[in-house]
Design a protein that fits this description.
mainly alpha; 4 domains; 12 helices
Length: 283
Amino acid sequence: MDNQTTEQQVVQSDPAVETTTDQSQTSVLATEEQTSDNFQDLIPDEYKDNKALANFNNMGDFVKSYISAQKIVGADKIPIPNKYATEDDWKAVFDKLGRPATPEDYNYNFKEGEVDQDLIKSFNQQAHKLGLLPQQAESLIKFYNDLNENNAVATEQNVEQTRLQTEAELKKEFGPQFNKRIDQAKRLASSTLGTEFLNNTFLKDGSRLGDNIEVVKAFSNLAEKLSEDEVVKGDSSSYMTAKDIEKEIASLTEEGSAYWDKQHINHAKTVDEVYKLRQTLNG
């Protein structure tokens, strides 16, 4: 009996020991938690002011950053030339970045006829000298192509608008003589300056020389003074003066004519002709 009692006492655990053990485990966990939450406290004092460590809040982020840095150390690096660098130093950098070996090695994805090949050759020489990568060079060409196309469209629209404005103003001023005076002015201007020069010369306001209202009026006035000149006169039989038009209208609308007789076979035709003559007379 005594032996059994002694064994039971040995097997039973000491409450004080268990309490001490639990407290130790709790202390360890609290320390780990504190370590995890206060990573900055683990940094030695001489490194605490280092800005490179300011953004780390836990050991996991620090370890990831360290591993990433080690990978970069082994990578192929390109030194940045300083102000004392030579042209050869820069060439070495351009080559490492991916510049083609020669200007002729630039390849673009342009359609046939989309760009001027002679201009491309000249551009490639400069692009290679500047160290442009193929994608940079192609982007520049596309940019200037689009810019030129937009400018061409804008110029053409401006030219057409100016032409219409000039035509409208001269119709008001010349009236029934518009076609005759414009034709005479064109004949004189073309024989004097040439059609190509008139059509391809642009003034500061964006208008074409041949469409500029002051130029047209100047040649028209000069043509009036030289009306007997064969160059200016042309086929004068195709033009009608205001008096000729009025006379024709009076003839077509005289009493008893088809103009007044709705049953007449030529009534509609006569009415239409009179309408057009009056439109011409009124500009």
